[in-house]
Amino acid sequence: FSASCSGCGPGYRSPLDAMKGPREEIVYLPCIYRNTDILKPDYLATVDVDPKSSTYCQVIHRLPMPNVRDELHHSGWNACSSCFGDATKNRNRLILPSLISSRIYVIDVGTNSRAPQIHKIVEPIDLYWKCGLANPHTSHCLGNGQIMISCMGEPSGNGKGGFVLLDGQTFEVVGNWEHPGEAAPFGYDFWYQPRHNVMISTEWGAPKALADGFNPAHVAEGHYGRCLNVWDWTTHRKLQTLDLGEEGAIPLEVRFLHEPSATEGYVGCALGGSVLRFYKTDSGDWAAEKVISVPSKKVEGWALPEMPGLITDILISLDDRYLYFSNWLHGDIRQYDITDRKSPRLVGQVFLGGSITSDGPVKVLEDPEKQPQPRPRVIQGKRVPGGPQMLQLSLDGRRLYVTTSLYSGWDKQFYPDMIREGSVMMQIDVDSVNGGLSLNENFLVDFGKEPDGPVLAHELRYPGGDCTSDIWL
């Protein structure tokens, strides 16, 4: 990958080196049938995103799993830029956990990147018996060659934020990363920063509470998280729990700045409609402050009298200049200049579907941001069902890919049309100099036209790594 280094390991020497990497040609997306009317296995789709290709914007391969109702969700790598200095490491396996079945699929993407195959299956019983954990979510490779996967629960469906370690060669479950009795009450995402000996993890909710949809009463009953958990990276001890309060309810994706010496990052809080900056204080502990707020809109014709934006995915460009996030319910993606880390500045916004389109059943009665209700988004004759959700930015920061499915149980509740019509994948052109977002009208992958019927496509990964999977040491 890098001309300046022969015989080095996977990824890139630095985030800025990664920005000079080759343009993405294919992406991998898990496609989910759970909670649809189609009883078929979830599968991993390979999509051609090379404009020069004859199969541009098409699914060129589908790898079905051997089971049904897994709920494939997020994926990670057996090796990333954290192993850059190790020439024996190769980014050739995609780690693909199942959120509901608790299976972990290890996918061989090295033999033929355009047609991946299953390499190994870690069965749920290994997670249950060896770790007392279930509902695996985020996987990151570690510099030592192991793979670490955050979990959201324990086998009976209650919340439990622990971490499973896999052997990087055999992919067998090694055991827990955290010490006995020190798991957080809830789990979801995590990011580590070895230079500061820290890992920070987030909290979604108890799997059995969110499995089939969102019940607002469950928030008051304490089935959803609102804390950041700070861990000592070397000793694996939990150091701090930062209660983010109501404005920080349901903190999902956590992103340190990519620069490995940075002592700060951002977390998107879904229910609170806010982005918080977390940072190391002068006294050496960690704190968090709200730096972006998306106010709820007063509405009629919807389930509740107020509609939150529901910030679901956030990411940071590799040069740490821009922050992006999606408001899944309001239907917009926003781009912020974060050059001033404490005062992000909105520089781009684009609406792609959502729940408040001007021709829909919902009427906005009061909007603190005073925006008109957006028109429905139609691309190549296809009306976009659902709202923008998972994001992935090209290495050079000029193309933002978007899918619309959040999680099948919530898709079914909030966007039943997406269950019927399938999700879509879109691409946004990014002005990475001055800021600005515009939809590429020539790009659409319609997962409503899949051979076995409409499907829910979720997270996006490039074979060579990207700004949400790679960590630099």
From TrEMBL:
Coiled-coil residues: none
| SUPFAM superfamilies with a match to the protein in the record | 3-carboxy-cis,cis-mucoante lactonizing enzyme
EC numbers on record: 1.8.3.4
Task: Tell me the organism.
Answer: Mola mola (Ocean sunfish)
**Which GO-annotated molecular functions does the record name?**
methanethiol oxidase activity; selenium binding
Which domain of life does the protein's organism represent? Answer: Eukaryota
Which Gene Ontology cellular component terms are annotated?
Answer: cytosol; membrane; nucleus
The reaction(s) catalysed by this protein are: methanethiol + O2 + H2O = hydrogen sulfide + formaldehyde + H2O2 + H(+)
Query: What membrane topology does the annotation report for this chain?
Result: Peripheral membrane protein
Q: What is this protein called?
A: Methanethiol oxidase
Which enzyme class? oxidoreductase
GO biological process annotation, one example: protein transport
Q: Which InterPro entries match?
A: Se-bd (IPR008826), WD40/YVTN_repeat-like_dom_sf (IPR015943)
Q: Does the keyword S-adenosyl-L-methionine apply?
A: no
Identify the metabolic or biological route this protein is part of.
Organosulfur degradation
Main function? Catalyzes the oxidation of methanethiol, an organosulfur compound known to be produced in substantial amounts by gut bacteria. Selenium-binding protein which may be involved in the sensing of reactive xenobiotics in the cytoplasm. May be involved in intra-Golgi protein transport.
Q: Where in the cell is it found?
A: Nucleus; Cytoplasm, Cytosol; Membrane
